[in-house]
Write a structure and sequence with these properties.
Chain A is built from seven helices and no strands. Chain A is mainly alpha-helical. The radius of gyration of chain A is 23 Å and the shape is extended. The chains are: A mainly alpha (about 190), B mainly alpha (about 100), C mainly alpha (about 325).
Amino acid sequence: MMLTSLAIVAVILLGLISVAAGVAVFVVDSMAKATFALLVSFLAVAGILLALELTYLAVVTALMMTIEMAIMAVFMIMFMMNPAGLMPMTMVHNARTSAVAGVVVFAVLVLGIWTIDWPARVGSLPADSTRQLGEAIMSSHMLVMLVIGIGLFATIISGTVLATHRGRYDRFGPDLRTAKPNDPVSGGLR
Amino acid sequence: MTLQLILSVAAALIGVGLFGALSQQSIVMVMMGLELIVNGVMLAGGAAWYFLTPELPDAQMLVVVALVVMAVEMAMGFGATLAIYRARQVDMVDDATELRG
Amino acid sequence: MTDPDMGGTGMTLAAAWGLLPAVLAVGLTALVLGVAFAAVDSVVVSGGRLRSAVEPLRSSLHWLAQQRRTTLAPDRLLWRSGVIAVPVLAVLSLAVVPIGGRTLLSTSADLVWFNAMEALLWAAVWLVGWGPNAVHSLVGAYRFLAQGLAYELPLMFALITAGLGAGSLRTMDIVATQENLWFVVSMPVAFVVFLASAAAFAFWGPFASPAGADIASGVMSELSGVDRLLVQAGRAVVLGAAAAMSVALFLGGGSGPGLPEPVWYLLKTLLVIAVIVSVGRRIPVTRPDRFVEFSWMILIPATLLQALWVALLVLSGFYP
């Protein structure tokens, strides 16, 4: 079963929205608007995935990207000089070279996309794409998930190490004997 | 026909993201460019699954890997941004030149 | 769609009734649940006076008639998007709740859908706080983000525990698995964490510090007129929808003797709402920074152990 004509129109519309929102990320002055333009781009791609019957991937993309963008907004406003865009300013370097690079890559990819003789579809859609993915993760493609798991664990550790400047010796004293940690803001437990 | 259209959208996302990643001075904005590139990869993976090999889960796994790449990129990016800002009050890529040869 | 045999299990409401009536039915249910929550809340806060049940309706009419005020240099686009998104997401989260045995959509990843709507609500509330360009409002928004970092992971583990027990992410399958024994018996920690998270993502009761009195009602401080009505209604509907979801996930859905399924479902939902309100209103407001440590040190290990316990039960063939 291929897409209905209504679905094709929706997919093209969502595609245009995702590209327009992607361009808006680097055009708008306000950092909050840039972050949420990126979120719109992600949600439009999630909508296309939903139309392609990749339900789980679409919903999980929306979930992950929303959480990411909410955290991104905090960092944007923390680090940018002009978070609300009330005083327009540009913060770019090599704009011309970068634009040329972007356009060249786009042109090469599009040339390839429209000249390649794409193979015909092999097989038909599974009844439930979520089940297909789940079974792959738990059997034939388990190695991928194992590697991902180790990678994410390493990310958690190194991210914490990079982001924090206080270790346990700062918190519990040089011999780690202090009962109550010496934190700038005390937590709820101790 | 629809496959080519969707892949062209993915190519446009990758092109825009590349422009952003190369041209922005703020580290956080560079990360947004990288995320747009991965967004394009995810779209292309989904389209490849639907139009070429829906019976195999490989293209779905590719999208999962792209999602994970995005999460890792963001966590490490923010960690590095915080570390470098804490050490030297730097939040622009032009000032982070320790590794220049 | 006139064939009565088509009304079997596994069919969505949209397929059974047609899309428009189904959407209207879900919208109406959302309204009923929201009004029910607001009325019960109002009665409990006033100390049990039944007359104050009409208070939410009266303030709704007041907000409808009230003129909208604004601030200096607001981010109008993001502000309005956030305000509209709050009630819309509340209704969308109800789309996968099987009231009367059927969901509006069956997405094969219903639990993730519910979670995604709630995460979008996270972003929407931040927008509501960011939009007006006012300090108390933004402080409230940041408190909500910090609170989100605390409840998000325990909530995900609680949701997935119910999915694990049923071996499916579909809410209709989860209800079907509880035919013999409700999930609340074998996964009580997940049930409690889910209800607490519901209060947290609606920033209500003990988790109301994003809209706390110490920052002049925070994210709500600059909202007036229809905007205020939309956000307040959205919060009430979110809590009502979460109560309805908890009935599907942990309390056996609409099963019960005698009465028809939707009636049992609504009765159980009202009971959960009454429990949430009467317990939640007796707990003092927690600070997000304290709640983060409690959540990461206690709730996350507890929900993980709960998931492990349920996984062992699944392996031993405890669930049908």
